[in-house]
Amino acid sequence: MKTAPPGANNDSAAMESGSTIDPLARIIGEVCLGPTAQIGAGAVLEGPIIAGACLRAAPLALVGGPAQHRRPEMQGTLHIGSNVEIREAATVHRGCAKPDARTVIGDDVLIMAYAHVGHDCRLERGVTLCNGAQLGGHVVVGEYAMVGARAALHQFVRVGSGAMIAAGSMVSGDVPPWTLVAGDRARIIGPNRAALVNHGLKQSLPHLRKAIRLLWPGSGRAAIPAIELKAALGTAEAKEDPVIESLIAFLTAPTKRSCCARQRH
């Protein structure tokens, strides 16, 4: 890891690691870049930041800006994994909930143009934020989830692995793993079939469909608790399904938000 000194634009330490920093970029504070970083014109990196290899910050991206918070004295850090791309005019803010708070961007994350990642968020491996997606503070987005263009997520919302949030959605509740949600306020449409197929989990589709019907039934039917889901599914194959395991773990974990409701057809 190489450290860019305060105010550096094209520091030699970063260049020695194979990085490219445009003369019009701005590096402020304690910024540690991994090898082969590419920092575009007008991009601003404001530390404390620790970044892995192959960070790509496009022109006008703001990476590591101070949290938008009424307690300016409580500013944390930003930790970025490897092979992360942050596109034009996107903003990623550092943590602020406590002195050692951090915003965490996992490996292989893509943050498209004009998207915003608020303070103390955590984006796990392979997450995609499409153009203009907006994440409030403390949002957690699980592995390989996708947030559609111009979708907005309430503070403290959790998004499960492999979930898809449709473009323009207003999300005020937790999004279960491997589901598709849409609308204002966002509701569960069904399984995220594309993600399941792409990750070799097509066999989980019927189990997840049945689980959604049991957990979020139509009117006149009682929903079963998540802890009883395996027994309700019946078959041994469904009980051992990793998608069902992840769904139960997600629904029984501590949270500050209720889960999204299911869309009624």
Report the CATH superfamily of the largest domain: Hexapeptide repeat proteins
Low-pLDDT residue intervals, each spanning 5 or more residues: 10-16
Number of domains: 2
- By DSSP (H or I, 4+ residues per run), the number of helices equals 6
* Cα end-to-end separation: 53 Å
For the biggest sheet, the summary is:
10 strands, mixed
What is the CATH architecture descriptor of the largest domain? 3 Solenoid
Level of helix content? Answer: 10-25%
Structural class: alpha/beta
Q: Using DSSP, what is the number of strands?
A: 26
Q: How much is the average pLDDT?
A: 91
Would you give the CATH topology of the largest domain? UDP N-Acetylglucosamine Acyltransferase, domain 1
How are strands sequenced across the largest beta sheet? 2-5-8-11-14-17-20-23-25-26
What shape does the CA trace take? elongated
Q: What is the beta-strand fraction?
A: 25-35%
Radius of gyration (CA) equals 20 Å
CATH C-level of the largest domain: Mainly Beta
Q: What attributes does this structure have?
A:
265 residues; alpha/beta; 10-stranded mixed sheet; 8-stranded mixed sheet; 6 helices; 26% strand
How would you concisely characterize the structure shown here?
This protein has 265 residues and is an alpha/beta fold. It has helices at 12-16, 193-198, 205-215, 229-233, 236-239, 242-252; strands at 2-4, 20-21, 26-28, 31-33, 38-39, 44-46, 49-51, 56-57, 62-65, 77-80, 85-86, 91-93, 102-105, 110-111, 116-117, 122-123, 128-129, 134-135, 140-141, 146-147, 152-153, 158-159, 164-165, 170-171, 179-182, 187-191. The strands form 3 sheets. The protein has a 10-stranded mixed sheet.
